[in-house]
Write a structure and sequence with these properties.
- The chain has about 220 residues and is α+β, with helices and mostly antiparallel strands.
- The protein has one domain: Cyclic phosphodiesterase (Cyclic Phosphodiesterase, Chain: A), CATH 3.90.1140.10.
- It is built from four helices and eleven strands, in the order E-E-E-H-E-H-E-E-E-H-H-E-E-E-E.
- A four-stranded antiparallel beta sheet has the order 4-3-10-11. Strands 6-7-8 form a three-stranded antiparallel beta sheet, with helices on one face. Strands 1-2 form a two-stranded antiparallel ribbon.
């Protein structure tokens, strides 16, 4: 449960995981050529200090919106997303470099274009009101501890990395605590840009990783 202190505007989020709920990841799926490149680069990073690698039961995806929903509300979520995506047409996903997050994820970064922002806000507008416990969110473990801005985002949308914190990216791996390499990995000079053509709805695990397909949409 979330408690708001009206004297300090602080948001406190408790950490008891709700029962009969699922974390849903709505994500862009890159084309086959790009997916192979991501897997190759991710596999090159695999070590005793990494928590996962693409290709080992995990696949490349780019989260656009993620939130927790009651299991008996998922069918409505899927229906709303299907309706929202009727407004979406293909657009370029422009690779801009690489980034190591404070949460120890190593990512390929993409331009936060107006197309991405519109898609992100479209999904929020069609699904956020259906999320579990609006205004009283569970603190997901994939990116904690939350900053005040993350707490505000998750309270308003269900997704802590929404809006000003939203950044299009594909995660290669996550390093264990105290396992982040001293030097940034050297990647081959390759353009990982692609055109959006597929958006999928997945169930996500406690690390935010997509693991079970719910619905796939071709964007034409």
């Amino acid at each position: 449960m979330v408690h708001r202190n009206y004297f300090t505007s602080a948001i406190v989020i408790t950490m008891q995981k709700p029962e009969d709920s699922t974390l849903i990841n709505i994500c862009v799926i890159p084309n086959a050529q790009m997916s192979r490149a991501y897997v190759s680069m991710s596999q090159s990073l695999k070590s005793d200090q990494t928590m996962f690698a693409l290709g080992d039961g995990k696949f490349a995806h780019m989260t656009v919106y993620m939130a927790r929903f009651a299991n008996d509300n998922i069918a409505k979520v899927v229906s709303n997303i299907e309706e929202a995506l009727k407004q979406v047409v293909p657009f370029p996903c422009i690779h801009t470099g690489y980034f190591m997050t404070e949460g120890r994820y190593l990512e390929a970064s993409y331009r936060k274009s107006s197309d991405f922002i519109q898609l992100h806000e479209l999904l929020i507008s069609h699904t956020a009101r259906l999320r579990l416990n609006p205004g009283h969110p569970f603190e997901e473990g994939y990116f904690t501890p939350y900053t005040f801005e993350q707490k505000k985002n998750v309270e308003e949308t269900g997704y802590d990395l929404a809006r000003s914190l939203y950044r299009p990216h594909v995660s290669f791996t996550r390093y264990k605590e105290h396992g982040v390499p001293k030097y940034f990995p050297a990647f081959p000079e390759v353009d990982l840009s692609f055109e959006l053509s597929k958006i999928c709805i997945y169930k996500a695990d406690d690390n935010g990783a997509a693991y079970e397909l719910i619905k796939e949409f071709q964007i034409r």
